[in-house]
Design goal:
It is built from 7 helices and 17 strands. By secondary structure, the chain is α/β, with parallel strands linked by helices. Strands 1, 2, 3, 4, 5, 6 and 17 form a 7-stranded mixed β-sheet that branches. A 5-stranded parallel β-sheet has the order 8-15-9-10-11. A 3-stranded antiparallel β-sheet has the order 12-13-14, with no helix packed on it. Strand 5 and strand 6 form a beta hairpin. Helix 1 runs parallel beside helix 2 and helix 5 packs parallel to helix 6. The radius of gyration is 21 Å and the shape is elongated. The protein starts with a strand and ends with a helix. The model has no long low-confidence stretch (mean pLDDT about 90).
Length: about 300
């Protein structure tokens, strides 16, 4: 148990958090970064990152965040492997408490806690987690060699998961509730060309079937109401994210989906001295490069705020 008194504390270890920390360190603010227990955030679940500038060849999400972490360390960022579970933003300095019993008093706070994968029906399906139900193809795809799996979703994440799973599975169903994908065109082209992938348009999962392990899914066509059953060995969810903002809702303005609201063209929240960056505030464009950009903006705005005190 320790007490840390800082000018600036950054919560989160994804692209937004690391970038904010690097900029804050370059500004001489001696930042502390509390990593959370999912070090690297959602990016570590991405197999190949092809669209982050500076990497002409695809790089894994884990490798990319590891490089960001090392850069932050080289800049002198103090990284604490802990998770904040309580905040008081009414006092000055702000007061943060952690799961490991640590206490942080900070003049300025950057929230870069990201977002977590959504589940179809957590209570109904939690018995299958790790037994055929997953949100991470990178983590679990290897276990489905020559088996049949399904991916639920229609965005970039779902397309990437489906394509990755073809490296192992003999058949991959992509289940999407609409008649068109939201994924980037280049990913769609790869999906349509891959003989292992079959897309179930206008379908939703009405039930996951199995006993101790996933054995299949029941689908319902949202247009025709037709129902069908697909025999499966595994199902991967890629249906969006929930922002990790719950502990801030007493103090910070959130939208109806829990994303942190910031001032126009800014990372400043409704609480002076508290900034938000990355996927916890970015509802529509959840990309590593955008998260990193907002991390830089948050740090520069934080520097100006601290200079004004």
């Amino acid at each position: 148990m320790a007490q840390y008194i800082t000018k600036i504390t950054i919560l989160g270890s994804g692209p937004a958090g690391y970038t904010a920390a690097i900029y804050a360190a370059r500004a001489g603010l001696n930042p502390y970064l509390v990593s959370g227990f999912e070090v690297g955030g959602q990016l570590t679940m991405t197999t190949n990152v092809e669209n982050f500038p500076g990497f002409p060849l695809a790089v894994s999400g884990t490798e990319l965040t590891d490089k960001m972490r090392q850069q932050a360390v080289n800049m002198g960022v103090n990284i604490i492997n802990d998770k904040i579970n309580g905040v008081d933003l009414t006092c000055r300095p702000f007061l943060l408490s952690s799961e490991n019993g640590n206490c942080f008093k900070t003049d300025c706070l950057i929230i870069a806690t990201g977002a977590s994968a959504k589940w179809l029906d957590y209570d109904a399906h939690k018995k299958y987690i790790g037994k055929g139900l997953s949100t991470c193809a990178t983590c679990d795809g290897f276990f489905y060699k020559n088996k049949t799996v399904a991916v639920v979703g229609g965005g970039n994440a779902a397309a990437e998961e489906a394509l990755y799973l073809t490296n192992f599975a003999s058949k991959v169903f992509l289940i999407h509730r609409r008649d068109a994908l939201r994924a980037e065109k280049i990913l769609q082209e790869r999906l349509f060309k891959n003989p292992k992938i079959e897309i179930c348009w206008n379908n939703v999962v009405s039930e996951i079937l199995g006993d101790q392990e996933v054995k299949g899914v029941k689908l319902k066509n949202v247009v025709t109401d037709e129902k069908k059953t697909i025999v499966l060995d595994g199902i991967f969810l890629a249906i969006g994210y929930k922002p990790n903002s719950e502990i801030f809702k007493k103090y910070i303005d959130l939208d109806e989906d829990g994303y942190i609201i910031t001032k126009p063209n800014s990372c400043q929240t409704n609480v002076e001295g508290v900034f938000a960056a990355g996927d916890v505030k970015n509802k529509y464009f959840q990309q590593a490069v955008i998260a990193a950009g907002t991390g830089a903006v948050a740090a520069m705005e934080a520097q100006k705020y601290l200079s004004s005190l």
